[in-house]
Amino acid sequence: MLLVxxxxxxxxxxxxxxxxxxxxxxxxxxxxxxxxxxxVWKNPDVSRDVVVRPDGTITLPLIGDIQAAGKTPSQLKxxxxxxxxxxxRDEGMVVTVAVHAVNSYSFTITGNVERPGVFSTQxxxxxxxxxxxAGGPNRFASPEGTQIIRRDPTVGTRIIPINYPAVLAGTETxxxxxxxxxxxxxxx
Length: 188
What we know:
Elements: H1 2-9, E1 35-40, E2 48-51, E3 57-60, E4 64-67, H2 73-84, E5 95-101, E6 106-111, E7 117-120, H3 127-133, E8 146-152, E9 156-162, H4 164-169, E10 184-187
Parallel strand pairs: 6-10
Antiparallel strand pairs: 1-2, 1-5, 3-4, 6-7, 8-9, 8-10
């Protein structure tokens, strides 16, 4: 009986969802259009509120352009302290990087949903959340064939199969993957 119960909750696609990253369990990664507040203690001339440009850079006095996109606030803080340290000699220098507005987290919903398009949110979304945000599957949909197209610079493009009705019913909760910025969800 237990074996039958376990078999019914196993993913039908045989996909190992545990290998997919969950951005909620890691430090936020800065992206283009995010709004940052950079403070260098005792150096107000270097401190700025900035928006990350489409090329991923920000500009600060003294150090000029610095790559921000793709880094965590902690990584950016270290890089800024290192660059400012070339000009300002202060052993007690403290740099703070705060993300004021998350504007780079967006994903695309295509196919047979009520409102396909590009969506931006201030919080991470699961597949279920995202499809509901798009109004849910429309009457022409075959939602059991839903998939995420994920472009990863290190391993290339991956297709992640999602049985939307099973996720919605709660029988494949592991398939309710958290979307990454740039993901495309397709509902056939």
